[in-house]
Amino acid sequence: MTSSLTTRSAFTLVEVLVVVIILAIAGVIVVPYMLRGGQMELQAASRMVIADIMYAQNEAVARQAVRRVVFDPDENTYRITDAEGATIGVTWKGGSGSENYVVDFDDDSRFQGVRLDNAAFGTTTTLAFDDLGSPVNGGTLELATTSFRYRVTVADFTGQVTVEPVPGG
Fold first, then answer.
1. How far apart are CA 43 and CA 49, in angstroms?
2. pTM for the full model?
3. 139-144 β-sheet, strand order
4. Cα separation of 22 and 76, whole Å?
5. What is the secondary structure of the chain as a DSSP string?
6. What confidence tens digit (pLDDT) does each residue in 90-115 have?
7. What gap in Å lies between CA 116 and CA 24, rounded to an integer?
């Protein structure tokens, strides 16, 4: 008794349609997130600013010395300095660690389209931490793209850093 079974390898029309429908649904969900006008860049920039503010505060405590975060909205940059105003250096930011703690939003492709706006800490655009890590003056700064805007707030006395979206972008 011989049985001849023939097997065919192919996709049915139903299988192809199911795959096409799944891809269409995924496209409808994913594409709007990709076209959100720089929101991901803005969130990344906000996280980095917060981390750098906290780094300056921790450095002030660890070194028992004043540390400042100097924001320059005109140049779209900020830097961390010591009490004399010299930019501090860290080896993990590349190079020899000599005066390299400068963040330039225009030169960093991760933050394309992000701009630094409205930095106000007391009467200056400089956030200073004393040797105990307390801010000399609390205040706010804003980071913005063409469609979105976030406000970063540093609380007086504690130095607690918060971020919130600004309505109306």
1. 10
2. 0.77
3. 115-121, 139-144, 149-154, 161-165
4. 43
5. ------------HHHHHHHHHHHHHHHHHHHHHHTSSSHHHHHHHHHHHHHHHHHHHHHHHHHTS-EEEEEETTTTEEEEEETTSPBP--GGGSTTSSS--EEETTT-GGGTT-EEEEEEETTBSEEEE-TTS-BSS-EEEEEE-SS-EEEEEE-TTT--EEEEEPTT-
6. 776 665 556 678 999 999 888 989 99
7. 38
Confidence band (pLDDT; 50, 70, 90) for 9?
Answer: confident
Q: How many CB atoms lie within 10 A of CB 105?
A: 21
Taking CA atoms, 106 is separated from 20, 80, 114, 115, 127, in Å, by: 41, 17, 8, 8, 21
> Pairing relation of β-strands 139-144 and 149-154?
antiparallel
Please, what are the domains in the chain?
A: 39-165 (3.55.40.10)
The tokens of 47 are what?
């996280």
